[in-house]
Each structure stands twice: as C-alpha cells, then as structure tokens.
Amino acid sequence: MSFLDKLASLIVLVSSLLILILPVAIIAFPKGGLLVVLMLILSLVGLGLYRDKVVLERWERYFLLSFGTYFVIVALSVWWFDGDWHDLDTPSRLVLVLPIFLFTRKLSIGINWFIWSIVAASTIIGVNQLMLEFGSYGLYDFQDNTGIVTLYASIFGLSNFLFIHQDRSKILNLIFFSAALLGMVASLLSGGRGVWIAAFLSIIVILILNPMGWHSRIKSIIFAAFLSIVLIAYLVPQTRVENRIDLAFSGVSSWVEDGKSNTSSGSRLEMWKAAYEIIKSNPVIGVGEGKYAQHKQVLINQKKVNQYIGQFNHPHGEYISSLVEQGVVGFIAFLLVLLTPIKRAFHASKKKIRHNDRVPIIFTMVLVLHYTFYSFTSGVFDHQSTTLFYAVFIAISLGLIKSSLKAKS
Questions:
Q1: Residue 396's domain spans which residues?
Q2: pLDDT in tens, 331-353
Q3: Could you tell me what percentage of the chain is helix, strand and coil, using 3-state DSSP and rounding each to the nearest 5?
C-alpha cells in the first residue's frame, strides 16, 4: 500500500470518528463546536491532497449556491446599513461547512458511523434530562436555552424512531426504539412548545413522503406509538406538558382580549406586531442585520407596541426575522437554505437502495422539517449554536447521501 493510500485510509478513519463523536460533543460539551473546526481543517487538507477534478451534479451546485447566497445577502445587508460585522459570525457557519460537504461526498464512510452517532446523542440527551428532572445532577450542563435542548432532543429522538425497519434485527430495532424514546422524553421534559408542534408536523409529512418505504400498517403503528408517547407525557403531571400547553393558550387569549404581553405567547405576538409595522415600511431589502431592536424601540416610544418587549433583540421567528432584516430577498434566501436539502433528500428516497443507505436521507428530512416548522416561533439562525447544528449536519448528511449513492452506481 502506497503512502497516499495509507493517508487516505487514515483520513477516512478520522473523519468517521469525528462524525461518530460530533452529535454528542455538540450537545454535551461547551466547546463541542471545535470538532467542526477539526472537520473543516481535515476536509481542506483532504481536498488539497486529492485535487482531482470535482464534477458536481446540478443539485450540488444549487445546494452550494443556496448556502453561499444566504451568507452574501446578509453580508451585503451589514455593509449597506452600516451594521456590525460581528453579525456575520452566525451566517458564516453556512459557508464554512461547505468544504466538509465537498470532502465527505468523496469519501467511502460507512453509514453505521452516522447511525450510531445519532443513537448515542439521543440516548445521552435523554438520560441527562431524566437525571436533571428526577435527580440532583446530570451527565453534563447544557449552556443554552430550553428551546434548543428541546429541538436537538426531538431531532435525534424522531430520527431513531424512523431508523426502525422490518429488515433489521429485533435487537437493533429495540435499541433504536429505546434511543427514540429517550430523545422524545427529553424533548417533552425540556419544555419547548414550538418544537412539539414542529415534531408533530414533521412526522406527518415524513409518513406521507415515506422515505423508509414502509407499508401502511407500519406507518400506522409508528404514528400511533408517537402519539401515545405524547399523550402519556400530557397526562402525567410530573412532565408539566399539560401546564405548558395551557399557559400557551392562556397567553394568546390574554393578548387578544386585554393586550397583555407579559407572557411567552403574548410577548411573541406583540413582537410580531412590531415586526409587521417594520416590514410594511421596508419590504424589499429590510432594515439591516441586527437592526430589529432599534426599530422596535421607535415603535415602543410611539406607544404603538407594548414596552414589555423592549428586552428582546429579535422577533422570535426566523421567517419574520428574514423579512425584517433583509426583506423579501432575505426571506427567499432563507427558504432556499431549507428547500434545497430536503428536495435532494426526497429525490434520493425514490431510488431503490438499502434501508441502511436511507438513514442520512431520513435524518436530512427530520432536520429540515424541524427547522422549517420551528422557525415560525423561533429565530433558529439568530443563534450560533442552532445555525452551526443545521449547517454541519446538513453538510454531513448530504455528503453521505452522495457518497453512498455513488458507491452503488
């Protein structure tokens, strides 16, 4: 074996190990994102060593263009409105992961590395949340808000649910079900109501698209099992799911009837009211990245919106944030960041491939659909952590889809 062959084998092994470790590292370690930096460096070195001609399919060009365009539009917005260049830190994640995609698509990484990474992440986040809920300590201390914990747990949990298949052994399916259960329980205990809606809508869409190739009976069983877990959580007082849902309805009712904005739901509605006023005046290119807060303050001073929302720096809704900050142009760019990956996953699911090779397809759908629906109530790209999570796992899963399908052709 030549030196280059040995180096290639080493790079594949290290890349596989990073893919295995990454999901747990991102949720469990404050500096877990450093693994993404390592993956980026490894990818750049690998691309430099193997400089063979890169022939991209049309969907790959569209994918690269969608991520790149989003970053460029935000950068132009910062420049045009004399914004803070620090605001580019978050959208830059979408560009920095592109070499990871380009390198992953060239490698022959076994899908099992990715499968067990999702199993481990779902299991650990579930065990940790149970320990925090019913014990005095957990395995780790997640340093972000509850909505993000709920989002990650739901994505990992639902993905494991969909990995179950009749062609797998009973033991493996039991492992997937256990990991799915732990992930979903963690999501329900964490308290992010917007994610619960996203999870419900995601599983409906996925069962309709049916990337797993399940028969109707299996789909009915999976949906019934999913609903059973949610209903049990709702009926068990210790989970506080019922209380969280009741608070949401009462908050909306109070805002509609009395204009109260001192609740989670009421403050969101009041922020969206402020955003609507801002969008009306600046529909095409918006008011600039990070400028929502100052325009909202003007509306507060004019007593057009409640002063309670003065503490919030973004409108808690990614679609609304895009319209406020970059106008219709930014809104379309954000939609393309979501639509391009899921369109590819949908087309790949129509090919006759083994269920194992469908895993990155399924995960891509779960990830994109969660972000699509959760973005109605949360600014997913307002946080570096959720932006990086989406960017790196889309890059990896699409790269694995490409490499696995290439190996079968």
A1: 3-241+320-408
A2: 999 999 999 999 999 999 888 88
A3: 75, 0, 25
